[in-house]
């Protein structure tokens, strides 16, 4: 067996737990979370907690992270890094960290189930559109018989 040592530098590989500092990687991890439970703490004191839906993930020094009315707009520029962790039950959660502030996001939706739901919704939408278009053709044909 031969072993070839390469001087090539590899990109980081984080699987299920680790610290993510690259803003684009953080954005990619967070953009498809959907429904989450969140817990906001400052200096280890819980400030607020609740549930919401992540509507937008962006990187902009001029805009704020906003959580209100169960809507979450995450600006990754509001945080220094993300810690990817797993609970004792094996559930993944995300800690966004910045100078004593921590925003923990615990997913309530599952991308595997959501994908199946999206496929089903697309098929249902296609069926409804076929019915609408078919009905529209029927109406157009009936209008041809109208003397007005």
Radius of gyration: 24 Å
Helix content: 25-40%
* Secondary structure category: alpha+beta
Q: How many domains would you count in the coordinates?
A: 2
Largest pleated sheet: 8 strands, mixed
Strand fraction equals: 35-45%
User: What order do the SSEs take from the amino end to the carboxyl end, as H and E?
Assistant: EHEEEEEEEH
What is the general shape? Answer: extended
Provide the spatial order of strands within the biggest beta sheet: 1-6-7-8-2-3-5-4
Oligomer: single chain
Specify the number of helices: 2
Would you report the number of β strands?
Answer: 8
Q: Which stretches of 5+ consecutive residues score pLDDT under 50? A: none
Amino- and carboxy-terminal Cα gap: 87 Å
Determine the mean pLDDT.
83
């Amino acid at each position: 067996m031969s072993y070839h040592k390469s001087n090539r530098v590899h990109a980081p590989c984080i699987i299920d737990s680790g610290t993510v500092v690259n803003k684009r990687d953080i954005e990619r991890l967070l953009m498809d979370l959907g429904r989450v439970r969140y817990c906001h703490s400052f200096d280890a004191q819980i400030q607020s907690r609740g549930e919401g839906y992540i509507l937008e993930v962006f990187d902009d020094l001029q805009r704020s992270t906003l959580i209100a009315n169960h809507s979450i707009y995450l600006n990754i520029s509001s945080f220094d890094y993300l810690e990817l962790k797993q609970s004792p039950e094996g559930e993944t959660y995300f800690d966004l960290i910045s100078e004593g502030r921590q925003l923990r996001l615990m997913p309530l939706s599952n991308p595997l189930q959501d994908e199946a739901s999206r496929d089903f919704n697309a098929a249902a939408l296609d069926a409804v559109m076929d019915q609408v278009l078919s009905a529209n053709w029927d109406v157009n044909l009936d209008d041809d018989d109208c003397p007005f």
